[in-house]
Amino acid sequence: MVSPDVVESLISGVRLSSVGPAAVTPPDLIYEPSNMDLAMKLHYLRGVYFFSSSSVEGFTIPKIKETMFQWLELYYHASGRFRRSESGRPFIKCNDCGVRFIEAKCSQTLDEWLEIKDFSTHCRFVSNQVIGPELPFSPLVLLQITWFKCGGMAVGVSWAHVLGDAFSASNFINMWGQVLAGNKPELPPYVSRLEKSEKPPSLAQEPLSVKRVDPVGDNWVVPGNCKMEMLSFRLAATQLDGLQSRVSGQKQKNDQAPLFECICAVIWQSLAKIREGPEPRIVTICRKEPHNRGRLTLSNNQMISVAKADFSVVEAKPKDLVELIAKPSVNENTQIEKLVKKDQGLMDFVFYGANLTFVDLGGSDLYGLELNKTKPVFVNYTVDGVGDEGVIFVLPEAKVAGEDGRGGQTVTLILPENQLMKLKDELKREWSIK
What we know:
single chain; 2 domains; six-stranded mixed sheet; 25% strand; Protein ECERIFERUM 26-like; CAT-like_dom_sf
């Protein structure tokens, strides 16, 4: 792992400003987050897109900002700021305060940086700011442009999860590429979004996928009990073939278990082996909802489900864990929404890491941001505000020539510090993953 001091010394020339919608939003426009949005409000997605010098040839900060003015018109509530109603429930005042814009320079080339292969260093290309403690002054989105010595560029997106899930965040930044290319869609109508005020619903059983935390007030940060660390590794298409074959016990491609489920099963069992104390018998699965959402729709509509093992995870066959993950026993979206509504949107929750959480970003268009008609050479996403059980993101990579048109997968783990290195050793020893 690269020393934080070394990483810090490579980034310089940091400048801050704000960018807002090109047109003034009508006064008194408000946006009330849904109950599912509020369940996610202590989490923050951090995405980084790396582009070669040829992809950003002719780009300047004034040109970038000019297109962003037009782009942010499409998502005017993302430029707003949070307030609280008389009841205390948060809402967004659409007041055009803008997103925070950060400029920086890196003394290395893009290739030199990517050769480090320590994805935890990517945090220098995206802001780690959170909402609060002063809601009226906290931007919901922060964008960072970092220029490499070679002329390449990193685009960092810090995204308040209360705005929408990872699929919304991806669509949001991809739309900037569309506006850059001159394909700006029609502006949506300016309409306040209000949540219906109804009698709190009855809740037979609380969801297993979220956990209440002590009230955080206006400082939207998860209170952590242990130090969390991040580890990422990349699996090439050929490695994935071997993993699928071994987990499934089948050599024929048509008979093999799904890729995401195979990766989850291997990590779930490996963690159960190295953890002290009871093994994790309940895991949360997060996927893209099957219905297509509009390109301008921001929402937390990800499918959340729970898989429960009533047998020893350590002693199980990996393919048995695959079956549990592929057909989870409980879908929890409705229960989460009822729980938040029952508490009138005033309580605080942790989702990622309430249980060991697996996130499948395979349905997202992570490489859909195009600059000068070219895609990024690499994209990575992580999340902040993770509970003690940890989270695993599984992300698709760009398709590679020579791999039958397939791409590999990036796996990012955020776990308690005392488990991460043990897990790394276990994955290397048992599955040749390093």
